[in-house]
Amino acid sequence: MAKYSVHQQPVETLLSWIKSGDIAIPEIQRPFVWKAAKVRDLIDSLYQGYPVGYIITWRNPDVKLKNGELSAGKKVLIDGQQRITALTAAIVGQRVLNKNYKEINIRIAFNPLTEAFEVLNKAKEKSPEWINNINPIVNDEITISKARKSYIALNPDIDEDLIEQRIEKLKTVKNQQVGIIELDASLDIDTVTEIFIRINQKGVVLSNADFVMSKIASDEQHGGNKMRKMVDYFCRLLVDKGFIKHIVDNDTNFTESNYYKGIKWIATNNDDLYCPDYIDMLRVAFTFKFSRGKFSDLVALLSGRNFETRTYENDIAAASYQKLSDGLEAFVNQTNYQRFVMILKSTGLINRKLISSQNSLNFAYALYLKLRDDNMSEPEIQGYVKRWLILSIFIGRYSGSAESRIDEDIKQINTKGIAAYLLQMEQAHLGEGFWDFGLINDLESSSVNNNAYTLYLAAQVNKNSVAFLSKSMTITSLIEQRGDIHHIFPKQYLINNGYPQKAYNQVANFVYTEQATNIKVGKMPPTEYLGKIKDQINQGVNEVSTLDTETALVDNIKTNDIPSFITEATHKDYTKFLEERRKLMSKKLKAYYESL
After folding, report:
1. What angle, rounded to 10 degrees, do the helices at 295-302 and 189-200 form?
2. pLDDT tens for residues 81-124?
3. What is d(CA 322, CA 320) in angstroms, rounded to the nearest whole number?
4. φ, ψ at 477 (rounded to 5°)
5. pTM for this structure?
6. Tens digits of per-residue pLDDT, 434-463?
7. How far apart are the first and last CA of the chain?
8. Residue pair 418/371 in contact by the 8 Å Cβ criterion
9. Where are the alpha helices (DSSP H) in 135-277?
10. Is 595 buried (19+), middle (13-18) or exposed (0-12) by CB count in 10 A?
11. CB within 8 Å of 6: residues ≥ 6 apart
């Protein structure tokens, strides 16, 4: 049996199919990731008659309806969306979203003399040799004759016949052929993914979440298209509050739906700690409602797949769409979302730069929704969610093979209960060896994105610790205000004594401190600047530090998990200092985890 068919269609036909809905393309609400120069290159290739790669579609399976008939599945676009978007931007003139969710025009300019294409800029706009925008010409809004006359009026000494010939050739862009690979409806998602990788020949793994988004965008029977809009709109409103006006003004059909009522609150929410994208939203909703982790299962279920009979049934599709809808509505629910963010903050993870694993957040939110659905008390929920979240970051639970790990964890939690499974995970991963050796080893790093170090900062925030050499300024305030990270053994001091970057930038040499203090310490060794602070305390001045008693200085050093011998330390003690501080940091992390 043939797995796919290959045929050619002109660009014009392809665009007309998208306009008429024969090919279901997800509404283009996500940012357009191509650079404008790549759009130019695509148009140039079409102009030159070069191949531009294949568009890959996959026909939705025909599902068995209640009357016994089979539905007619639409073609779903699974690869080529960026090329389609580029064509609609350059030829049709459709605006696209940049990475900041701002709508922009991509105008491609054409020079008939050199047959060159460029992204329109001010220099090209002012030059008479360039046609500012190919869109009206290719799109038949301007005749060849009119385009030629306009150009000759600005360039009177140019060969008219040559210009007419080049403009005629430009018009043929829409007649150039594009290869279309149509995958058979009977193929399962894993086979489709494998074909995609082999055709692409780049080893780029197509996200199964993209399959899901294309799938629901093409569904009108079960309201999938509105569901898709809710996901896109929610993600966009998180970063672009003003977009709410566009929805209200231009999408009355959506604003009359419950989905809109569920998400409109986000337009006035100013917290950006948990900023999910469409994959994160699908991940949480799917894990929560289906107790599964693999998106390929979701694609099959939305297609109505009966895993036992290996047929497709509308009842299964309908039930799956309803469950996904329920999961997404629970995700965007204001109470759920804001309570979950409060849980995050209560662990000390108050800033996105402290969070190294988005999938740990996603699983923690799915767990929160599940435990709420199980009617567990709020204090119990918070305890389990916090510990699971921090444990998963500690051990990098979802850093590799995330789908498989998520699938395993949610199934185990369902079978054993959260209390038993969490205890099992703690015994397996957080034994004495972890705190005494594993974590200390993890802290031997010069990367501030190190999981152990970011959790150490969270632990300090959680305990409301004061900054190094400060009387009252908290580490929380400095992280929120982007305060200074200070080298306990100053960087220049260590450089002057022959230490390489990998040594002086060890995370165990870092503390948060006030900028004024950091500047005053300069490149003095610890014994010198701490001695100076002691002298100033005795003299009743606080030029370097705001600490005003020697007891406060000792407590501050202890609070920041710095070995007490620091007051006498020189560069000769640096290696010993790092070893001892890592142990103290690990000790704080253990106490922090046990307090959650």
Report:
1. 120
2. 778 888 888 888 888 776 666 778 889 999 999 999 999 999 99
3. 5
4. -60, -40
5. 0.77
6. 999 999 999 999 998 899 999 999 999 999
7. 57
8. yes
9. 135-138, 144-154, 160-171, 189-200, 208-217, 224-239, 243-250, 252-255, 258-263
10. exposed
11. 54, 179, 180, 181, 182
